[in-house]
Amino acid sequence: MAAKLSTKEKTALKEVIKIEWNRGNDIETFFKDMEDAQWKAEKWGVDTSIQEMVNHAVAQMEDSGLFEDNFLMDWEEKEEYEQTWNAMKTYFTKEYRKMQRYSKTKQVFERCDRLVGDAEWWGGWSQRPLPYFQKALSPGRSNTGELDISSVPW
Fold first, then answer.
1. Rg (Cα) of the chain, in Å, rounded?
2. Whose C-alpha in 35, 39, 85, 147 is 20 to 30 A from the C-alpha of 120?
């Protein structure tokens, strides 16, 4: 039989699920960390509700400043029965991935603009960046759907 926890220990364990999202980490890592913390808390007999996890995760998404107000309001407008853990993970992960793709596409465009500008300055070989751009936009070896900008040499 497991050792009995004090009220203070149970309260501390319950707070474990309230992990802050380090934006340097992927959103799915954050969700997995929360699930792991919830599992550990329940293993020790500390009840944590899924709704508490959903509320905390959504608050972290809002605090991140990454998501537009309209996007956040659309989540809040959903019926309570639609605001499940899995639905929340899917909703925010899909938008997060879309923002990542946009950000990487924008980086490639900016790099191409700089290179084309340099090429024009050096006498014009502005078609040269096109193969790199096409390669960066082609499906990579990963299944994340992210752009591979590692092949762009600048």
1. 22
2. 147
For residues 34 and 57, the answer to whether their CB atoms sit within 8 Å is: yes
Share in percent of the chain as helix, strand, coil (round to 5) = 65, 0, 35
Q: Which DSSP helix (H) or strand (E) runs through 36?
A: helix 27-43
Contact 56, 21 (CB under 8 A): no
Select from 105, 19, 106 the least CA-distant residue to 61.
Answer: 19
For residue 78, what are its two tokens? 């959903």
Average confidence (pLDDT) over 82-86: 96
- Averaged confidence pLDDT in the chain: 76
The verdict on pTM exceeding 0.90 is no
What gap in Å lies between CA 134 and CA 67, rounded to an integer?
29
What distance in Å separates the CA atoms of residue 88 and residue 72, rounded to the nearest whole number? 11
| Short-list 40, 29, 30, CA closest to 5 | 40
pLDDT value for 136: 55
For the chain, where are the E strands, in sequence order?
Answer: none
Contact 13, 41 (CB under 8 A): yes
Rounded Cα gap, residues 145 and 88, in angstroms? 20
